[in-house]
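Could someone model S-adenosylmethionine with this protein?
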Amino acid sequence: MKRNHIREWFDDDAFWRELYPFMFPEKRLAGAIREVDQVLELTKPKGKLALDLCCGPGRCSVALARRGFSVTGVDRTRYLLAQARRRARAARVKIEWVREDMRDFVRPDAFDLVLSMFTSFGYFDDKREDLTVLQNMFASLRPGGTCLIDVVSKEYLARVFQPTKSETLPDGTRLVQRHEIFDDWTRIRNEWILIRKGRAKSFRFHHTVYSGQELRDRMEKAGFVDVHLYGDLGGGDYGTNAQRLIAVGRKPKARKGKATGGR
Ligand SMILES: C[S@@+](CC[C@H](N)C(=O)[O-])C[C@H]1O[C@@H](n2cnc3c(N)ncnc32)[C@H](O)[C@@H]1O
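Reply:
Sure, complex below.
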């Protein structure tokens, strides 16, 4: 893995390891089978080669492989890739796992489908790096291939925003979440405080929150065409009831004598 990036919060493996039970409870892991069916319905890929970018514990990679796809899962976090390998073994599916930063992974014209699921996009302090990721996704698609990005929606967030939330998790842990919008409504700063047996542990992270139009503009800048927005994976409108921001875009089919490239 190339190591010339400035260290940011997501480079801390302990963050992902300690939050794993809260981020990836069994229900969310099991839910990937339905999510992937919905993804396939929205994207209708022409072939069976899929890239799960920022695959984490392989939720969608494993579900795609069970649907007969040949899957490459890319992630930077060793701990999560180990979970992904374990889950693939248990499901008896073969998947290619690559440990690489999403700003660096690019495999030209290799995939029919490229996915970025469960808010794995928008992590970088330098927002131009988000465009680099989109350009990598575009370049990695075969002509005619489709890409789906699933992130938290700015419009949704503005509607339901609460600076503080608190809940008790099934194992008795108290989770307090604090949120702050900054940088002119472009980013959210989060703190998750886990209180267990009278001891508190705090985790901080921040990322860009995209509106539908902002994400569509960025995708078009990277070269995607026919960009459609949905408010959930079931294909609901990106309207006032939207719960997520789902963007689906296509790499144009190559025209004779003309290369497709969004850079
Ligand atoms: C919220 S998790 C989502 C995981 C997975 N997409 C899913 O649907 O379950 C975000 C993932 O992004 C990965 N990630 C964060 N920064 C990354 C980077 N710069 N390059 C590659 N992966 C990264 C993390 O390791 C984590 O697995």
